[in-house]
Design goal:
The complex is a heterotetramer, with 2 copies of chain A (about 525 residues) and 2 copies of chain B (about 450 residues). Chain A has about 525 residues and is of the alpha/beta class. Chain A has 14 helices and 12 strands. In chain A, the strands form 3 sheets. In chain A, strands 1-7-6-5-4-2-3 form a 7-stranded mixed beta sheet, with helices on both faces. A 3-stranded antiparallel beta sheet of chain A has the order 10-12-11, covered by helices on one side. Chain A has a two-stranded antiparallel sheet with strand order 8-9. In chain B, strands 1-7-6-5-4-2-3 form a 7-stranded mixed beta sheet, sandwiched between helices. In chain B, strands 10-11-13-12 form a 4-stranded antiparallel beta sheet. Chain B has a two-stranded antiparallel ribbon with strand order 8-9. The chains are: A alpha/beta (about 525), B alpha/beta (about 450).
């Protein structure tokens, strides 16, 4: 049997299988899989990888605040440093290598045009506080990007400065709190579905709101009835609902408009977690659904690279009710010129609630996201959302008979959620299953989130995947499921077998945290 | 569309496989009256060449620092970043991976985070550093919240030397969380008596050194005073290169150190993305915000790294988490770490000396101009000069001559006439003698 | 036992060694080691990875020369193409990953500053035939680079246009032929040592010279006596000697000056193969040794990246006798301006022999090489040569007792040559040994070249290697030698075990060459 | 020095281990009187920032095509190269590896070479292509030498439509090898009777289409005439994009096809590095110069690629080799292949149509200017206009207005008064309407 890659799927009859891959090597390397120590083990404090000329003698103005002890920072020469970081990089999986179906994270293709654009000196080498007359192009870009975001979402205004999704949540919730305060209201509670991302309750808590859980219905969505019941239960004390739509189970909330209305009637606001915007561009606008504030993860929907965990950007679009409370700074267009408003001015209309961050937000991400938007345009963005949804449903169709779908009643949006009941009695956990996917050359899906189903597996293929890619993924998943059900438990519990590291001991890491390198203790018993 | 692999035939086949008649069947849950009928009112898709042209056009409307004598600082500094740094951060394996949730195939990211944490801890002389915050300003906000948690108090004292926008971030957070603040007035000379403000309700004192105005602050007595009252000292910096030359906050008794790491490895980028550095004492580690990478072993006993102590974090603890931060500054940490690895002890200390030497030289020359005086007693690579006229106007006039002379204090402290004639001037290793000459000459002419 | 990387060197007692790395996977992938088909197997002719708008109707001016049949070129969308080439890249070894001791190739660190410089639009986006007034910076750079090369080598002039080392050889030999012709001489023979690189005799043959082999002495160097004898034997018929110095055995030719003199006396010229210039910068100048022409591989000594086999650049420095015959074009400085001379002009002094290539040479490489030179300066270049020589001799000192040194009488220069007598009776060949190095994470050294020793192993570490890197290399080589001698032949004959491919069948490739992808023949016997 | 890892202590320890007293002991074989005593008369080493500044300074003295309306072609064409291409060729694993001598750890390079060879063969409609030559001009020289080997004759006939610098390369090689040449005079209109020059001693006829002057040439009759006399047809192109739209040489009977591949994937780079494409018929493959990559299997039966048929090459055959080429255009092949993979059939044909459409539009507009006439009957994306004055002077005058109007034929054919008023004008997808307007207006004013 030969699979679609032209490689045998089983050891061939008669083959000696003499590859001897368990053979140890002297270096610990295995051909292109190279071991790499820490810089603290190989670097030295008496060399440097930069050439800097010592300044001439001068009268220091440190006023006695000079450093008195060494820092203890080793250096590598440039060739050593290059190898060190190249070798480290080779221990990573990445979108550029294959399918990265991390649900809720929208791991889509990151075009290099965007990287190139962000590196133009006119964007990368400008200072946030140089005179505004010298950064008109930057302000124009921010203004235009904001206009696109507002148009895509059908909202009224946008706050550009938040630095990531969670920061955007904070910003949006602050606008809500400010608006409530301006109305003389001080409600103390926020409704948050159980399926919400952890940043939602954490954000509410930062504003000293207490969280009221909204249970999901059997079909994975939030019922307007339940929301109304809770509003009634906490009458007058609901500041907002924080709802993700499409939700973290990958479903569009069908009663969203009714929920929004109920919350508005109770004097509250509707915060929408926009992490899943990738499903609905050009298909529906949050502004039409009653949303008051929604963050947009530019590093998800608009493809700014995830970069190993950041940086991101989390602009927040706002409804008319919240727009006046948008934080500083913001860009205004004034004839042909753009003005960055950094301090409160009394035009009467705006009441910025304050400032989220120094400077003006993640310009580097803005450039990339804007290049992505211009590239896609109105038609391309709609197509991207449709393809993202198509791909998720295609994966679902390919796996639904073998895996377990907790919410079969609704079509999936851009991601499909399975629970672990298909693994029942196999001795294989969701975690084991994920690790076996690693051996097959895949990054696992999001696991154990959302919390509303047992052993969740949340698969988001994004629009970047070709049909061939999805077919191979489906076939691989099916093979894995059959293997799990067929009792090949070592393939799972021992996984990953081929990665740069075998399964890592997370418990040990947490029990006795080693968070910083320290020189090894000298061997005190050394004989000489 | 070049980024979308499907043909229309693929789409039709896939819909058939799914068993629906049209793509809109998959969007059936959107209430019918809420479905978008018309296309979004935005232009259609666009080829790469055309987009590149538009982006170049916008970029060309900005004056980049490389084109001009450039003295702006105030929390963002223009340093030379070795070419290798950009090469590494553009590696697909770093650029297009995400948070290392699967440690077995993200050892690359995890190991550099461990290196980053160690470098930051050593630089600040603290026990432990996290895997970054968004930037220095939001990190400062988090530091105050952390101090509240540690001390179970909620009143922070804020130095008048703190960057005004950092102060605004703290103010905003505190106000929204109904916490208390005691903010000292702007303190260009570094002469405030902050110790007098510390009392039994003080959770922490937030002090910046070099201060916003460039002044170096002796934090030891403040730390002692804090500790005597059960408060924490939060030490802030905006120019991390200064730590190559000045006594680190950890050695002065700081309990939390937070700062902006942009200067190492990261460009100006009009203010972002930057990288917040955050370090503390071992005993407070479980109150720390943000991700932490720790060492462990794999099933075969080989050393490896994982994200750890995540019970502090939002995805585990939800409304009880130490912070809501999730995505942080991953790739900017990498840039920092690569640059710092190239520098090392010898490099960072020399780089700091060069910065300081050049700043001293310029300060001396500016001080010699009539109508211009340097107000700082001590400084690192940035100082404040008092002009004989409005500093914002001076900057405008010098901009017309193609010189970015610095940041007028009034840009960040707008409604304060005492500060209107003050200009922040920053000098780094990128500043040439010729550029200094041009600034001096121009100031002589307009001052 | 734990080696310097902190990894066990032997399976640990009691360890199950259950890694199961021989387990096949469904996809054929093994975690980060990903299989990748050809674009012809995955690409399609009805999609494209670029967005180009179809032009409006227009009256074609093709005059009936339009294409009549499809081309048969599949495309990949951008995300698919990115993955395809990233995955391919991961099947390569590279300097940025580790020691690459390929003798004669000078695989040194390639600074990214140089890459960045070459990409400045002022260099990368200028046309070779735009007005000279608009490319003064480019001409200045070429002129300055030439000046540096002439200074480093102590020669009189330089021809910048040759595109690689072999092209430089051709250029130098053409200058020699032109000079001989100008003297009315038509000798027919060129002396070439047996140890010479293949390009030397191949170049001579292109000019219709016949090659006279110069045998090496027992100590690996060329004797002046032997050269004189051959000159006498072919009296009046010797056009030149082509000598590599340091030679391909890694030795400095001690009698080089005497040889040069003998050739000159016989009316011939001394062509020096400068591939090994990296050993002698700042230590000796070819111009002082009697050299008439020498190519310089900018992709070796001056670090322009090897790029998987090119592009390179091979400027040729010339003696006073050959300078007038330098080919077109060349750059002249004229006051503050630079002039590119592209056609013969009658200043009386110059008699360009012709043109080596369209345009003016490898500008992209010139920029990189010049950045390298400016970075090193006079002191850094000398240090680089010293370190290169130091490193080679350090490796030699670490291995001489276990491996076999054919030429122990001279110190090595920047590379050290071993022969395979240490492998005698082990059943392990040089090739096997090299393949086992691959498993250890090293690129093998140059093998079976030069031809003057049996089973040559030519190791050139370059100055870019740290002592720690060399120590690990030496220890690994020692372990391998001991293993070979200890009869662990499977470690060698079965190697590589861990690379993306096991040993490849080169005979099969040559016997029935498949040089182009063709669609698989349809299964004619298919039952349905 | 940042690129050199040793400290002085390392060096001393290593010398001790080697057993010599000083580094100069290792250089003992250099005759004492030939050792360099003084340092080279060149400046000392220099930091990265300073070098970057010098390089920017030099680059700034050049007018780059992106800054200006740009119509120069004549063998080097400015096309839009997708950003992804540069990302891929900068990957460490491609950039810093060498010729794939060890196929087990260079499958990346080998597989793209196999893809490259297939793409080139398909584009030219030939059986087999090699893994590149230095560029089109040197490839043309090699093609003539190969034709000599195949036919065992040594007289080539060179069309007057061949790029003059390609002709010069062939001339030089032939002269140095004592081969014969029959060179036809410059042929702007494509009207030469080259068939009349073919005789029994002719090894090959070298014809370029589109010609240097832009003219498209019908090569079928020439091929027939060649074959009737036992000669080969060598078909040359300098603009590979043309193959998206015009009948490929393989379909016209060419025996060897050689051309410049720069247009796909590679920038202008002031003339190099470029990539020579070289293809031929199966039966001549063993006379081909250059490297070839072929398919095979490994010890486990998996498909893999290796360099093959190396018995043609210098490192095996030495003075009997088909060429002396060793290093070729590796990374430029990769750039070509990546760009071509993005384009594919649909992309390259459309790109060609865009180029042609724009060129047609500009030709029409220029032809309408009094004193300007397009001389070509047919063309692809470049054509020749006859002006009413010296073309070189016109170009100079337009340069002063910030327009690079094209390449005056006299730059390459200097001593020919008939050609002095001829200007080559190239148009690609990068040329905007606005740029064409500016050229038209300017020519109207000066013509
Ligand atoms: C549903 C959801 N909400 C919020 C966030 C937080 O976004 P960020 O990581 O950008 O702070 C995420 C990110 O993972 C998410 O998936
Ligand atoms: C000794 C020697 N001479 C000549 C050459 C040819 O140089 P190039 O490959 O640049 O044509 C080489 C390259 O490998 C070489 O090692």
């Amino acid at each position: 049997m030969v699979n679609s890659q032209g490689r045998p799927t089983q050891p061939q009859a008669g083959s000696e299988n003499s590859s001897g891959t368990d053979r140890p090597t002297f270096t610990g390397n295995r051909a292109l899989q190279l071991e790499e120590p820490l810089i603290f083990e190989t670097g030295r404090t008496d060399i440097t990888g930069v050439d800097l000329a010592e300044p001439d003698e001068f009268a220091s103005r440190l006023g006695g605040h000079g450093r008195t002890a060494p820092i203890d920072l080793p250096a590598l020469s440039e060739p050593e440093a290059m190898r060190h970081y190249v070798r480290l990089s080779q221990k990573n999986y990445a979108i550029d290598m294959g399918l990265y179906p991390l649900g809720s994270c929208t791991m889509k293709h990151n075009p290099r045009l965007n990287e190139q654009s962000a590196r133009l000196p006119g964007f990368s080498d400008i200072h946030p506080l140089q005179p505004q007359s010298t950064v008109q192009g930057a302000l124009e870009l921010i203004h235009e990007l904001g206009r696109w975001l507002v148009t895509i979402t059908g909202m009224q205004a946008v706050a550009m400065s938040p630095k990531a999704g969670a920061h955007g949540e904070l910003c949006g919730m602050m606008a809500i709190k400010a608006a409530l305060t301006a109305r003389g209201k001080t409600p103390t509670k926020v409704l948050v579905p159980e399926s919400a991302h952890g940043t939602n309750p954490a954000t509410a808590a930062l504003l000293r709101y207490s969280v009221v859980d909204v249970p999901a219905r059997k079909d994975g969505t939030v019922g307007a009835d339940e929301v109304k019941r809770l509003i009634a239960e906490h009458a007058g004390d609901i500041a907002a609902i924080m709802l993700t739509n499409p939700n973290t189970c990958g479903l569009f909330e069908p009663e969203i408009a009714e929920i929004a209305e109920a919350v508005h009637e109770a004097g509250g606001f509707f915060y929408c977690d926009g992490a899943n915007l990738n499903a609905i561009m050009g298909k529906a606008r949050p502004g039409d659904l009653g949303v008051d504030a929604m963050h947009i993860n530019l590093h998800k929907t608009f493809s700014t690279p995830h970069g190993g965990g950041g940086p991101g950007a989390g602009p927040v679009v706002l409804s008319g009710a919240l727009a006046p409370f948008a934080p500083l700074p913001f860009v205004e267009k004034d004839g042909n010129a753009y003005r960055l408003v950094e301090t409160e001015h009394d035009d009467g209309g705006s009441h910025p609630f304050g400032r989220m961050t120094a400077f003006h937000g993640q310009m580097g991400m803005f450039v990339r996201a804007y290049a992505w938007m211009l590239s896609h345009g109105s038609d391309g963005m709609k197509q991207a959302s449709e393809d993202a949804v198509l791909n998720a449903n295609y994966v679902r169709a390919g796996l639904a008979d073998l895996m377990s779908l907790p919410y079969p009643d609704h079509p999936s949006m851009h991601e499909v959620l399975f629970d672990d009941s298909f693994l029942k009695d196999t001795g294989v956990s969701t975690l084991d299953f994920a690790k076996a996917m690693i051996d097959e050359g895949y990054h696992p899906m999001t696991m154990y989130f959302p919390l509303v189903v047992h052993g969740a597996l949340l698969i988001e293929p994004t629009e970047s995947e070709s049909r061939a890619s999805l077919d191979l993924f489906i076939a691989t998943m099916r093979d894995l499921v059959m293997a799990a059900k067929g009792g090949e438990s070592e393939r799972f519990t021992g996984a990953p077998h081929f990665a740069p590291r075998r399964r890592l001991d997370e418990t040990r890491a947490a029990r006795n945290p080693i968070l910083k390198w320290a020189p090894p203790a000298p061997y005190e018993e050394a004989a000489e | 569309m070049r980024y979308l692999p499907h043909t229309d035939q693929d789409r039709a086949d896939m819909l058939a496989r799914i068993g629906v008649g049209s793509i809109d069947d998959l969007f059936a849950d959107i209430p019918a009256d809420k479905r978008l009928k018309a296309p979004l009112d935005l232009p259609p898709h666009c080829g790469e060449m055309e987009v590149a042209r538009m982006m170049r056009g916008l970029a060309a409307k900005n004056l980049s620092a490389v084109e001009t004598p450039f003295f702006a600082g105030a929390g963002a500094y223009r340093h030379h970043v070795p070419a290798m740094v950009d090469h590494i951060i553009q590696r697909s394996e770093f650029l297009t991976s995400y948070t290392p949730y699967q440690p077995e195939i993200t050892q690359g990211t995890l190991q550099y985070l461990f290196e980053f944490q160690t470098q930051v801890a050593n630089l600040t002389a603290m026990d432990v550093a996290n895997a970054s915050m968004y930037d220095g300003s939001t990190g400062t906000g988090e530091a105050v919240l952390m101090a509240h948690r540690v001390t179970r108090r909620n009143k922070a004292v804020i130095s008048g030397g703190l960057h005004p926008q950092y102060r605004a971030v703290v103010e905003n957070l505190s106000q929204m969380a109904d916490d208390r603040l005691d903010i000292l007035p702007p303190d260009p000379a570094g002469s405030e008596d902050i110790i007098a403000r510390i009392d039994d309700e003080t959770s922490c004192v937030v002090v910046q050194s070099p201060s916003f105005y460039g002044q170096l602050i002796d934090m030891k007595p403040i730390a002692e005073a804090c500790h005597a009252k059960g408060a924490l000292l939060v030490a802030v910096f905006t120019e991390v290169v200064s730590l190559g030359l000045i006594e680190p906050p950890g050695a002065q008794g700081a309990d939390i150190v937070v700062g902006e790491g942009q200067s190492i490895g990261n460009g100006l980028n009009f203010g972002g993305p930057y990288v917040g550095l955050f370090a503390t004492r071992q005993k407070y580690v479980r109150q720390m915000p943000g991700r932490l990478c720790g060492e462990t072993v794999d099933a075969e006993g080989s050393r490896g790294f994982v994200l750890t102590l995540s019970t502090r974090e939002q995805h585990i603890r939800r409304d009880k988490a130490t912070s809501n931060i999730c995505t942080n500054s991953g790739l900017c940490c990498l840039a920092f770490t690569v640059h710092m690895t190239l520098l090392g002890e010898a490099g960072i200390t020399r780089l700091a000396r060069i910065n300081h030497a050049k700043a001293c030289r310029l300060a001396e020359r500016l001080d010699a101009i009539t109508g211009v005086s340097v107000i700082n007693e001590s400084f690192f690579n940035e100082f404040t000069v008092r002009l004989s006229e409005d500093a914002a106007e001076t900057v405008e006039r010098l901009t017309e001559r193609g010189i970015v002379a610095g940041v007028p204090v009034s840009r960040l402290e707008p409604h304060n006439p005492d500060l209107a004639d003050m200009l922040l001037v920053a000098v780094t290793e990128t500043t040439t003698d010729d550029e200094m000459d041009r600034l001096v000459t121009a100031l002589q002419e307009v001052a």
